[in-house]
Amino acid sequence: MAKTIFEEMGGTYVRQGDYYLPCLSLLEEEQKPVGVWGQRHARYLKQYHKVLYMNLLSSGKLNSYLADIDKQAEEMFFRLVKQLAEKENVTEKLKAENQMLWVQNMNNVRNSAMELVNRNLIYML
């Protein structure tokens, strides 16, 4: 019997009951830590961009892609918090004078920065 293209390229089959199934496995990729931003982006890809998600997963690049997105989002978030806090005049002086107002303003700044990161990086393709 002639070899299939799969067998010619070094592939093998295993018998499962009455069927011969190809022995396939995913490529091993270096596992990098993925934070909350990367996990949100993964959920978004899995739900709304299934083809891209499956392509990244099957090529072994999903973890490194998500780790990169997470790093970019984290850097963008801290940069935006700093810029927005300066723009809104949320300073250490305000913190010393009126702690509750400072907390309120910082929460607003952090929420605004989070919305910007989500809109521009996490939930956009």
Question: Would you kindly provide a brief summary of this structure?
Answer:
The chain is mainly alpha-helical and 125 residues long. It has helices spanning 5-8, 36-48, 50-59, 62-87, 92-97, 99-122, and strands at residues 13-16, 19-22.
Outline the structure in words.
This protein is mainly alpha-helical. It has one domain. Helices cover 66% and strands 6% of the residues. The chain contains six helices and two strands; from the N terminus they run H-E-E-H-H-H-H-H. A two-stranded antiparallel ribbon has the order 1-2. Helix 2 packs across helix 3 (50-59). It is rod-shaped, with a radius of gyration of 24 Å. The protein starts with a helix and ends with a helix. 14% of the residues are buried. The model has no long low-confidence stretch (mean pLDDT 91).
